[in-house]
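User: what does the whole thing look like in 3D?
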Amino acid sequence: MTRFIIRVVFLLLPLFFALHGAEKDKAKWDNIYSREGYVYGAAPVAFLKDKVKLLPKGRALVLAMGEGRNAVFLAEQGFDVVGVDISEVAVKKALLLAKERGVKITPIAADLEKYSIEENAYDLITCFNYLQRDLAPQMKKGLKPGGMIIFQTFTIDQLKYKRGPSNKNFLLRRNELLDMFHDLA
Ligand SMILES: C[S@@+](CC[C@H](N)C(=O)[O-])C[C@H]1O[C@@H](n2cnc3c(N)ncnc32)[C@H](O)[C@@H]1O
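Assistant: Here's the predicted 3D structure for the full assembly of 185 residues, as C-alpha cells:
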C-alpha cells in the first residue's frame, strides 16, 4: 500500500508543478500589467510595422499578445485578429485598446502551454518576445496554404546588454528560428 501511494505521488508531482508553474506565470504577468499605462507601449513592434504590407491579409493569430499593441495594429490594418495571452489583465487592456482605436479583436485568456492552435486556420501567425519552442509544429499546422509566420524574440546575444530575459531557455540560439521553420522556406 505504501509503495502504491509513493508511486501515485511521484506520478502526480509533474502535474502539480505544471499547474503551479502556470498559476505563478499568470500571477507574475497579471502583476506586471496591473501598472497604469502600457508596459511595452501601445505602438506596434517596429519590425511588424515595417513588414505589414508583405503579410497576407485575413485571419491573424497573435501569440502572447500582451496588452495588444500588435494585435490592435493588425486589426487596424484590416486583419481579423485572435490574440492569446495567459494574463487576464493584459487581455482586458488589449480589449480596451482595441475599443479606443475603434477596432475589434478576439482576445483569449489562455495558457499557451496547454492551448491548441486551430489547424489550417490562419493567414498570419505572429509571435513577439515570447519563446515556447514546442509551439512551432502547431504554428506551422495553424497556417492556411500561403500563410506566414512573423516571429521576433531575443537571441542569446541579448545577454551582453544586461536587459531582457536572462534565462537562457527564453533566448534563441544563433539561427535557431531558421532551423525551427526551415520546412516553411
Ligand atoms: C515579454 S511579454 C511580450 C508581450 C507582447 N508579445 C509584446 O511584445 O508586447 C511576454 C508575454 O507572454 C505572455 N505569456 C507568458 N507565459 C505565457 C503562457 N504560458 N501562455 C500565454 N501567454 C504567456 C505574458 O503574459 C506576456 O504578455
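In plain terms: The two ends are 56 Å apart (CA to CA). The pocket of S-adenosylmethionine is lined by residues 25, 29, 40, 64-66, 69, 85-87, 90, 111-113, 128-130 (CB under 6 Å).
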